[in-house]
Amino acid sequence: MDTPATVEHNGSSSSGNTRPPDERPAKRPRIQSLSASPSKSPSGPNRRIKPGPSRSSVGLNLSRVTSASDPEAGSAPGSTTPASRSFPLSIDPIQATLALSKIIGSESTGAVGSPSSPSTHQPSYAGLLNQRDVLLRGFKAVQELRARENGGSPTGSQVDLETVLVEHQQALSELSELHSKQHQLEDQITCAQDSIDLLREEAVDARSALKEAESARDDLRRQRDGLTKELGNVRKELSVVRGELDAARAGSQSAHVGQHTSPEASLAADAEPSSTAVSMSPLPDDPLMAELDASLDALRHDTEHRERTLDSYMSELETTNNDLEAEREMWRLKATGLEDEVRKRVEEVAEWQRRYEARGTRLAALIHDMNELRARVV
Description:
It is built from seven helices and no strands. It is mainly alpha-helical. The longest helix is centred in the middle third of the chain and has 104 residues.
């Protein structure tokens, strides 16, 4: 019985297992003309290979598989067949089929006329089974591609493209919202900055007014101290003048009594000075002393009036100073609150800026994926 030719497996040829020339059969047909029974042993002498498609037909079908599975090839010029618009979950079976077709095409010439022995049929049969499985997987992958193209599966690239477009629109709307919020925050920050500037100007004016009030208060205090000192000096002078007046009045009274009394009366006066002093009639008022007393009284009244005026003015100044201190404290607290609010707004703007940059990165990635899908689909 004729034996089949040896087929290369895993890139190695079986030319080393040749038999001597006297044992070679007279005729070796091609591998396509042989048939094998699956019930018999692969290494038996009566093993026959089931006829299959020719290598040329396999190469033709694989070229169609390649054109249908290549997502970037598109339609050939002048061809009415549309380009593939769907993508399988894995393109490895089609690529494996293409590689197998190239291997079979490169091995077909050397494998036909090479001698073989029965011991080489088992690995050759296993290799053929592997090749058959690869061809079946490639054929199923092509059938899946065609079914998805013809049936309009909802898991196709059109749905993916629509999903990406929807995400793109959502990202654009979020981006516009972020822009509007950013503009609003910038306007609020500008208004807060203007308010802070106005508050600072008012605080500067209040501080200048407070300094002027403090300087006026110091001037009034100095004036009061000067008047108080002057009043003390006047009082000292008045006490001295009063002492002198009292001494002069006592001397004049004693001289007047000595002139108008008799010797007996003088002796009685010497014996009883107290009774004589009590029974004496008062002297008439001296006009100079009366004028001096009137001047002292007027000066005393003027001094008391000035003291009352200074006391009232000092109380008013103290009240104004307390009001200015309270107002300054209020403005200081308000400025501190505004600074805290501005700092929070600045931190919020920074956070929105960070989110905006992250959304921009996502948007750029989505646009890139959408462009890739369009390039692969069109």
